[in-house]
Design brief:
The chain has 425 residues and is α/β, with parallel strands linked by helices. 41% of the residues lie in helices and 16% in strands.
Length: 425
Protein backbone atom coordinates (compact mmCIF):
# COMPACT_ATOMS: atom_id res chain seq x y z
CA UNK A 1 0.00 0.00 0.00
CA UNK A 2 1.37 3.31 -1.13
CA UNK A 3 -0.33 6.67 -1.39
CA UNK A 4 -0.18 8.22 -4.85
CA UNK A 5 -2.22 11.24 -6.01
CA UNK A 6 -4.56 9.25 -8.25
CA UNK A 7 -5.31 6.83 -5.38
CA UNK A 8 -7.13 9.55 -3.43
CA UNK A 9 -10.23 8.66 -5.48
CA UNK A 10 -10.15 5.09 -4.17
CA UNK A 11 -9.58 6.37 -0.65
CA UNK A 12 -12.85 8.31 -0.73
CA UNK A 13 -14.74 5.52 -2.51
CA UNK A 14 -13.69 3.11 0.23
CA UNK A 15 -14.84 5.68 2.78
CA UNK A 16 -18.20 5.87 1.01
CA UNK A 17 -18.49 2.07 1.11
CA UNK A 18 -17.74 2.17 4.82
CA UNK A 19 -20.48 4.73 5.44
CA UNK A 20 -22.93 2.64 3.38
CA UNK A 21 -22.15 -0.46 5.44
CA UNK A 22 -22.63 1.33 8.75
CA UNK A 23 -25.68 3.23 7.52
CA UNK A 24 -27.29 0.05 6.21
CA UNK A 25 -26.56 -1.82 9.46
CA UNK A 26 -28.03 0.97 11.59
CA UNK A 27 -31.10 1.27 9.35
CA UNK A 28 -31.89 -2.47 9.34
CA UNK A 29 -31.31 -2.88 13.08
CA UNK A 30 -33.50 0.15 13.76
CA UNK A 31 -36.29 -1.37 11.64
CA UNK A 32 -35.97 -4.62 13.57
CA UNK A 33 -36.03 -2.83 16.92
CA UNK A 34 -39.08 -0.77 16.04
CA UNK A 35 -40.95 -3.81 14.75
CA UNK A 36 -39.97 -6.45 17.32
CA UNK A 37 -43.36 -5.91 19.01
CA UNK A 38 -46.52 -5.49 16.96
CA UNK A 39 -49.82 -4.21 18.32
CA UNK A 40 -52.64 -6.34 16.90
CA UNK A 41 -56.29 -5.22 17.09
CA UNK A 42 -58.68 -8.16 16.73
CA UNK A 43 -62.42 -7.44 16.15
CA UNK A 44 -64.70 -9.16 18.70
CA UNK A 45 -68.49 -9.25 19.17
CA UNK A 46 -69.65 -8.19 22.62
CA UNK A 47 -73.16 -8.52 24.07
CA UNK A 48 -74.22 -5.51 26.06
CA UNK A 49 -77.44 -4.80 28.01
CA UNK A 50 -79.71 -2.06 26.84
CA UNK A 51 -79.20 1.18 28.69
CA UNK A 52 -82.76 1.08 30.03
CA UNK A 53 -82.23 -2.29 31.61
CA UNK A 54 -85.28 -3.78 29.90
CA UNK A 55 -85.46 -7.57 29.71
CA UNK A 56 -84.39 -8.85 26.34
CA UNK A 57 -82.80 -5.53 25.60
CA UNK A 58 -79.35 -6.90 24.99
CA UNK A 59 -77.54 -5.79 21.89
CA UNK A 60 -74.48 -7.05 20.11
CA UNK A 61 -71.67 -4.58 19.29
CA UNK A 62 -68.32 -4.88 17.55
CA UNK A 63 -65.28 -3.90 19.55
CA UNK A 64 -61.48 -4.27 19.21
CA UNK A 65 -59.38 -6.46 21.43
CA UNK A 66 -55.83 -5.15 21.64
CA UNK A 67 -52.92 -7.53 22.13
CA UNK A 68 -49.12 -7.29 21.69
CA UNK A 69 -47.53 -9.85 19.39
CA UNK A 70 -43.85 -10.28 20.10
CA UNK A 71 -41.33 -11.06 17.36
CA UNK A 72 -40.06 -14.61 17.08
CA UNK A 73 -37.07 -15.75 15.07
CA UNK A 74 -38.18 -17.38 11.82
CA UNK A 75 -39.00 -16.73 8.20
CA UNK A 76 -40.40 -13.26 8.62
CA UNK A 77 -39.60 -9.68 7.78
CA UNK A 78 -38.31 -8.77 11.22
CA UNK A 79 -35.84 -11.66 11.21
CA UNK A 80 -34.59 -10.48 7.82
CA UNK A 81 -34.01 -7.00 9.29
CA UNK A 82 -32.06 -8.44 12.23
CA UNK A 83 -29.95 -10.88 10.23
CA UNK A 84 -29.22 -8.34 7.51
CA UNK A 85 -28.26 -5.64 10.01
CA UNK A 86 -26.01 -7.97 12.00
CA UNK A 87 -24.36 -9.22 8.80
CA UNK A 88 -23.53 -5.67 7.73
CA UNK A 89 -22.29 -4.86 11.24
CA UNK A 90 -20.02 -7.92 11.29
CA UNK A 91 -18.73 -7.03 7.83
CA UNK A 92 -18.12 -3.44 9.01
CA UNK A 93 -15.94 -4.45 11.95
CA UNK A 94 -14.64 -7.89 11.01
CA UNK A 95 -14.58 -8.15 7.24
CA UNK A 96 -10.83 -7.62 7.23
CA UNK A 97 -10.42 -10.88 9.14
CA UNK A 98 -13.33 -12.94 7.88
CA UNK A 99 -13.64 -12.07 4.22
CA UNK A 100 -11.48 -12.25 1.12
CA UNK A 101 -8.63 -11.51 0.60
CA UNK A 102 -6.99 -12.07 4.02
CA UNK A 103 -8.82 -15.31 4.77
CA UNK A 104 -7.38 -16.97 1.68
CA UNK A 105 -3.80 -15.81 2.18
CA UNK A 106 -1.27 -18.28 3.52
CA UNK A 107 1.03 -17.47 6.39
CA UNK A 108 4.76 -17.26 5.73
CA UNK A 109 7.87 -18.41 7.54
CA UNK A 110 9.39 -14.93 7.27
CA UNK A 111 6.55 -12.56 8.03
CA UNK A 112 7.41 -8.85 8.33
CA UNK A 113 7.41 -7.18 11.70
CA UNK A 114 8.49 -3.91 13.23
CA UNK A 115 12.06 -4.05 14.45
CA UNK A 116 12.53 -0.61 15.92
CA UNK A 117 15.09 -0.26 18.66
CA UNK A 118 18.43 0.07 16.90
CA UNK A 119 20.73 3.02 17.54
CA UNK A 120 18.77 6.15 16.70
CA UNK A 121 19.37 9.84 16.30
CA UNK A 122 17.21 12.88 15.70
CA UNK A 123 18.39 15.39 13.13
CA UNK A 124 16.68 18.68 12.40
CA UNK A 125 15.89 19.24 8.75
CA UNK A 126 16.28 22.65 7.08
CA UNK A 127 12.51 23.19 7.40
CA UNK A 128 12.57 22.55 11.16
CA UNK A 129 11.22 19.00 11.11
CA UNK A 130 12.81 16.66 13.63
CA UNK A 131 13.75 13.60 11.59
CA UNK A 132 13.98 10.19 13.24
CA UNK A 133 16.98 8.25 11.90
CA UNK A 134 17.99 4.69 12.82
CA UNK A 135 21.26 2.88 12.14
CA UNK A 136 21.66 -0.82 11.47
CA UNK A 137 24.69 -2.90 10.56
CA UNK A 138 28.39 -2.50 11.32
CA UNK A 139 29.52 1.12 11.89
CA UNK A 140 32.45 0.64 9.51
CA UNK A 141 30.27 -0.78 6.70
CA UNK A 142 29.59 1.06 3.47
CA UNK A 143 26.63 3.37 4.19
CA UNK A 144 23.30 2.99 2.40
CA UNK A 145 20.53 5.54 2.98
CA UNK A 146 17.04 4.10 2.56
CA UNK A 147 13.98 6.25 1.72
CA UNK A 148 10.56 4.61 2.14
CA UNK A 149 7.35 5.06 0.14
CA UNK A 150 4.76 7.72 0.85
CA UNK A 151 2.46 7.05 3.79
CA UNK A 152 4.81 4.41 5.23
CA UNK A 153 7.80 4.66 7.55
CA UNK A 154 11.19 3.05 8.13
CA UNK A 155 9.60 -0.29 8.99
CA UNK A 156 9.11 -0.82 5.25
CA UNK A 157 12.78 -1.87 5.24
CA UNK A 158 12.32 -4.74 7.74
CA UNK A 159 13.58 -7.25 5.15
CA UNK A 160 16.45 -4.99 4.08
CA UNK A 161 17.65 -4.78 7.69
CA UNK A 162 18.19 -8.52 7.74
CA UNK A 163 19.50 -8.95 4.19
CA UNK A 164 21.62 -5.85 3.67
CA UNK A 165 22.43 -4.95 7.28
CA UNK A 166 24.86 -7.82 7.84
CA UNK A 167 27.73 -6.08 6.03
CA UNK A 168 26.55 -2.55 5.31
CA UNK A 169 25.71 0.45 7.43
CA UNK A 170 22.02 1.12 6.85
CA UNK A 171 20.74 4.61 7.56
CA UNK A 172 16.94 4.42 7.72
CA UNK A 173 14.84 7.50 8.32
CA UNK A 174 11.16 8.39 8.57
CA UNK A 175 9.96 11.09 6.20
CA UNK A 176 8.55 14.22 7.90
CA UNK A 177 5.19 13.66 9.55
CA UNK A 178 5.41 9.89 9.16
CA UNK A 179 6.62 7.25 11.57
CA UNK A 180 8.50 8.90 14.42
CA UNK A 181 9.55 12.06 12.53
CA UNK A 182 8.01 15.42 13.32
CA UNK A 183 6.19 17.66 10.90
CA UNK A 184 7.85 20.57 9.08
CA UNK A 185 7.12 23.93 10.66
CA UNK A 186 5.66 25.37 7.45
CA UNK A 187 3.57 22.24 6.68
CA UNK A 188 5.21 21.99 3.24
CA UNK A 189 5.81 18.49 1.90
CA UNK A 190 7.18 19.51 -1.49
CA UNK A 191 9.68 17.14 -3.11
CA UNK A 192 12.34 19.87 -2.95
CA UNK A 193 11.84 20.17 0.82
CA UNK A 194 12.13 16.42 1.23
CA UNK A 195 15.32 16.42 -0.85
CA UNK A 196 16.85 18.97 1.55
CA UNK A 197 15.85 16.70 4.45
CA UNK A 198 17.61 13.86 2.67
CA UNK A 199 20.74 16.00 2.44
CA UNK A 200 20.67 16.45 6.23
CA UNK A 201 20.39 12.67 6.69
CA UNK A 202 23.28 11.99 4.30
CA UNK A 203 25.47 14.15 6.54
CA UNK A 204 25.12 11.49 9.26
CA UNK A 205 27.28 9.13 7.18
CA UNK A 206 30.32 10.94 8.56
CA UNK A 207 31.78 11.91 5.21
CA UNK A 208 31.64 8.44 3.67
CA UNK A 209 30.10 8.31 0.19
CA UNK A 210 26.65 6.74 0.35
CA UNK A 211 24.35 4.78 -1.90
CA UNK A 212 20.78 6.10 -1.96
CA UNK A 213 18.03 3.49 -2.12
CA UNK A 214 14.47 4.74 -2.58
CA UNK A 215 11.12 3.12 -3.21
CA UNK A 216 8.22 4.89 -4.96
CA UNK A 217 8.27 8.47 -3.63
CA UNK A 218 11.68 7.61 -2.16
CA UNK A 219 12.99 7.34 -5.72
CA UNK A 220 11.31 10.62 -6.62
CA UNK A 221 13.05 12.29 -3.67
CA UNK A 222 16.40 10.89 -4.84
CA UNK A 223 15.93 12.24 -8.36
CA UNK A 224 14.92 15.62 -6.93
CA UNK A 225 18.06 15.52 -4.78
CA UNK A 226 20.14 14.89 -7.91
CA UNK A 227 18.55 17.96 -9.49
CA UNK A 228 19.21 20.21 -6.48
CA UNK A 229 22.63 18.85 -5.47
CA UNK A 230 24.39 17.76 -8.68
CA UNK A 231 27.77 18.42 -7.08
CA UNK A 232 27.10 15.63 -4.55
CA UNK A 233 27.06 12.95 -7.24
CA UNK A 234 30.40 11.20 -7.32
CA UNK A 235 31.35 12.73 -3.98
CA UNK A 236 28.89 12.37 -1.12
CA UNK A 237 26.79 10.00 -3.24
CA UNK A 238 28.41 7.10 -5.08
CA UNK A 239 25.34 5.24 -6.37
CA UNK A 240 21.56 5.14 -6.69
CA UNK A 241 18.94 2.40 -6.46
CA UNK A 242 15.52 3.47 -7.74
CA UNK A 243 12.73 0.97 -7.11
CA UNK A 244 9.17 1.13 -8.52
CA UNK A 245 9.35 4.86 -9.10
CA UNK A 246 8.81 7.49 -11.78
CA UNK A 247 10.49 10.55 -13.24
CA UNK A 248 7.49 12.89 -13.45
CA UNK A 249 4.00 13.54 -12.08
CA UNK A 250 2.91 9.97 -11.20
CA UNK A 251 -0.51 10.62 -12.74
CA UNK A 252 1.23 10.49 -16.13
CA UNK A 253 2.99 7.16 -15.62
CA UNK A 254 0.26 5.02 -14.12
CA UNK A 255 -2.27 2.76 -15.78
CA UNK A 256 -5.26 4.72 -17.09
CA UNK A 257 -3.02 7.79 -17.17
CA UNK A 258 -5.27 9.56 -19.69
CA UNK A 259 -8.30 9.29 -17.42
CA UNK A 260 -6.44 10.38 -14.30
CA UNK A 261 -4.78 13.28 -16.12
CA UNK A 262 -8.22 14.51 -17.19
CA UNK A 263 -9.49 14.17 -13.61
CA UNK A 264 -6.51 15.80 -11.91
CA UNK A 265 -7.72 19.40 -11.80
CA UNK A 266 -11.49 18.94 -11.46
CA UNK A 267 -11.49 15.98 -9.06
CA UNK A 268 -8.18 14.61 -7.74
CA UNK A 269 -6.71 17.86 -6.46
CA UNK A 270 -9.96 18.92 -4.71
CA UNK A 271 -10.16 15.47 -3.08
CA UNK A 272 -6.59 15.85 -1.82
CA UNK A 273 -7.51 19.21 -0.27
CA UNK A 274 -10.63 17.61 1.21
CA UNK A 275 -8.45 14.87 2.72
CA UNK A 276 -6.38 17.57 4.44
CA UNK A 277 -9.38 19.58 5.66
CA UNK A 278 -11.35 16.57 6.90
CA UNK A 279 -8.39 14.66 8.28
CA UNK A 280 -10.17 13.31 11.43
CA UNK A 281 -13.06 11.98 9.33
CA UNK A 282 -10.69 10.39 6.80
CA UNK A 283 -8.69 8.86 9.65
CA UNK A 284 -11.88 7.24 10.99
CA UNK A 285 -12.88 6.04 7.52
CA UNK A 286 -9.43 4.53 6.99
CA UNK A 287 -9.71 2.60 10.25
CA UNK A 288 -13.14 1.31 9.27
CA UNK A 289 -11.84 0.40 5.79
CA UNK A 290 -9.15 -1.63 7.49
CA UNK A 291 -11.69 -3.37 9.71
CA UNK A 292 -14.15 -4.17 6.91
CA UNK A 293 -11.47 -5.52 4.57
CA UNK A 294 -11.81 -3.01 1.72
CA UNK A 295 -8.37 -1.59 2.53
CA UNK A 296 -6.87 -5.08 2.29
CA UNK A 297 -8.51 -5.56 -1.08
CA UNK A 298 -7.13 -2.22 -2.31
CA UNK A 299 -3.62 -3.05 -1.08
CA UNK A 300 -3.77 -6.45 -2.72
CA UNK A 301 -4.80 -5.02 -6.10
CA UNK A 302 -2.30 -2.16 -6.20
CA UNK A 303 0.75 -3.55 -4.40
CA UNK A 304 0.86 -7.33 -4.69
CA UNK A 305 0.71 -10.04 -7.32
CA UNK A 306 -1.34 -12.55 -5.31
CA UNK A 307 1.69 -14.43 -3.98
CA UNK A 308 2.01 -12.32 -0.86
CA UNK A 309 1.58 -13.84 2.57
CA UNK A 310 -1.15 -12.95 5.02
CA UNK A 311 1.38 -11.11 7.18
CA UNK A 312 2.75 -9.07 4.27
CA UNK A 313 -0.74 -8.02 3.21
CA UNK A 314 -1.77 -6.97 6.70
CA UNK A 315 1.57 -5.31 7.49
CA UNK A 316 1.24 -2.81 4.66
CA UNK A 317 -2.52 -2.37 4.96
CA UNK A 318 -2.12 -1.17 8.55
CA UNK A 319 -0.51 2.00 7.21
CA UNK A 320 -3.99 3.15 6.21
CA UNK A 321 -4.57 3.55 9.93
CA UNK A 322 -1.12 4.78 10.93
CA UNK A 323 -0.53 7.55 8.39
CA UNK A 324 -2.03 10.97 9.19
CA UNK A 325 -4.47 11.85 6.35
CA UNK A 326 -3.51 15.55 6.28
CA UNK A 327 0.16 14.61 5.84
CA UNK A 328 -0.73 12.12 3.11
CA UNK A 329 -2.94 14.65 1.34
CA UNK A 330 -0.32 17.41 1.32
CA UNK A 331 2.29 14.99 0.03
CA UNK A 332 0.03 13.86 -2.79
CA UNK A 333 -0.60 17.47 -3.78
CA UNK A 334 3.17 18.01 -3.97
CA UNK A 335 3.57 15.05 -6.34
CA UNK A 336 1.40 16.77 -8.94
CA UNK A 337 4.22 19.32 -9.33
CA UNK A 338 7.05 16.79 -9.54
CA UNK A 339 9.22 16.45 -12.63
CA UNK A 340 12.83 15.28 -12.89
CA UNK A 341 12.93 14.41 -16.59
CA UNK A 342 15.70 16.87 -17.43
CA UNK A 343 17.82 15.62 -14.53
CA UNK A 344 18.19 12.03 -15.71
CA UNK A 345 20.81 12.62 -18.38
CA UNK A 346 23.09 14.47 -15.94
CA UNK A 347 23.32 11.62 -13.42
CA UNK A 348 26.84 10.22 -13.61
CA UNK A 349 26.97 7.72 -10.74
CA UNK A 350 26.17 4.00 -11.07
CA UNK A 351 22.41 3.51 -10.95
CA UNK A 352 20.17 0.48 -10.61
CA UNK A 353 16.52 0.82 -11.65
CA UNK A 354 14.07 -1.86 -10.50
CA UNK A 355 10.55 -2.10 -11.92
CA UNK A 356 7.61 -4.44 -11.42
CA UNK A 357 6.46 -6.18 -14.55
CA UNK A 358 2.80 -5.84 -13.48
CA UNK A 359 3.09 -2.55 -11.61
CA UNK A 360 0.10 -0.38 -12.48
CA UNK A 361 1.02 2.37 -10.00
CA UNK A 362 4.35 3.18 -11.65
CA UNK A 363 4.32 1.41 -14.99
CA UNK A 364 7.47 -0.58 -15.88
CA UNK A 365 7.81 1.68 -18.91
CA UNK A 366 8.56 4.54 -16.49
CA UNK A 367 11.43 2.56 -14.97
CA UNK A 368 12.77 1.64 -18.39
CA UNK A 369 12.62 5.30 -19.44
CA UNK A 370 14.69 6.26 -16.37
CA UNK A 371 17.24 3.52 -17.04
CA UNK A 372 17.63 4.50 -20.68
CA UNK A 373 17.99 8.19 -19.85
CA UNK A 374 20.62 7.77 -17.10
CA UNK A 375 24.03 6.97 -18.63
CA UNK A 376 25.16 3.47 -17.75
CA UNK A 377 22.11 2.61 -15.66
CA UNK A 378 21.17 -1.03 -15.09
CA UNK A 379 17.56 -2.12 -15.39
CA UNK A 380 15.99 -5.08 -13.57
CA UNK A 381 12.40 -6.24 -13.90
CA UNK A 382 10.64 -8.30 -11.25
CA UNK A 383 8.36 -9.89 -13.82
CA UNK A 384 5.38 -10.85 -11.64
CA UNK A 385 5.60 -7.92 -9.24
CA UNK A 386 3.34 -4.95 -8.73
CA UNK A 387 4.17 -1.79 -6.83
CA UNK A 388 5.45 -3.60 -3.74
CA UNK A 389 7.62 -6.09 -5.56
CA UNK A 390 10.65 -5.26 -3.42
CA UNK A 391 8.58 -6.38 -0.40
CA UNK A 392 6.72 -9.40 -1.78
CA UNK A 393 9.74 -10.68 -3.73
CA UNK A 394 12.31 -9.36 -1.28
CA UNK A 395 14.79 -12.16 -1.88
CA UNK A 396 15.07 -11.44 -5.61
CA UNK A 397 15.10 -7.70 -5.02
CA UNK A 398 17.86 -7.77 -2.42
CA UNK A 399 19.91 -10.17 -4.51
CA UNK A 400 19.87 -7.61 -7.32
CA UNK A 401 20.70 -4.79 -4.89
CA UNK A 402 23.57 -6.74 -3.31
CA UNK A 403 25.02 -7.48 -6.73
CA UNK A 404 24.80 -3.80 -7.63
CA UNK A 405 26.34 -2.62 -4.34
CA UNK A 406 29.22 -5.02 -4.78
CA UNK A 407 30.00 -3.77 -8.28
CA UNK A 408 29.11 -0.07 -8.05
CA UNK A 409 32.02 2.37 -8.06
CA UNK A 410 32.55 6.01 -8.81
CA UNK A 411 34.04 5.12 -12.20
CA UNK A 412 32.93 6.99 -15.33
CA UNK A 413 29.51 6.03 -16.58
CA UNK A 414 29.34 3.11 -18.95
CA UNK A 415 26.90 2.70 -21.85
CA UNK A 416 23.33 2.04 -20.80
CA UNK A 417 22.29 -1.55 -20.80
CA UNK A 418 19.42 -3.61 -19.46
CA UNK A 419 19.92 -6.73 -17.44
CA UNK A 420 17.58 -9.58 -18.18
CA UNK A 421 14.32 -9.55 -16.26
CA UNK A 422 14.36 -11.33 -12.93
CA UNK A 423 11.56 -13.86 -12.84
CA UNK A 424 9.68 -13.26 -9.58
CA UNK A 425 7.85 -16.42 -8.61
Amino acid sequence: MFFMPFQVLGLWLRGLLTLILWGGAICLLTLWYNNRETVVRDPVEVVREDEGGRPGGERRVQEEQVRVERWQFGLNRETAFLVGGLALLVWSVGGGWLAYPRLFRKGGADEPRSERGGPAQTVRGPDGAELHVEFHGPPDGDPVVLIHGWGLDGDEWCYARKRLGARRRLIIWDLPGLGQSGRPVDRDWGLEKLAHDLDAVIALAGGKPVVLLGHSVGGMIILTYCKLFPEALGGRVRGLVLAHTTYTNPVKTTSKAGLYAALQKPLLEPLCHLTVWLSPLVWAMNWLSYLNGSAHRSTERSSFSGNETRGQLDFLTRYYCKAAPDVVGRGMLAMFRYDATETLGAISVPTLVVAGGRDGTCLPEAGRFIAEAIPGAEFVTLESARHCGLFEFHEQFHAAVESFLASSTAAPARPARARGGVKAR
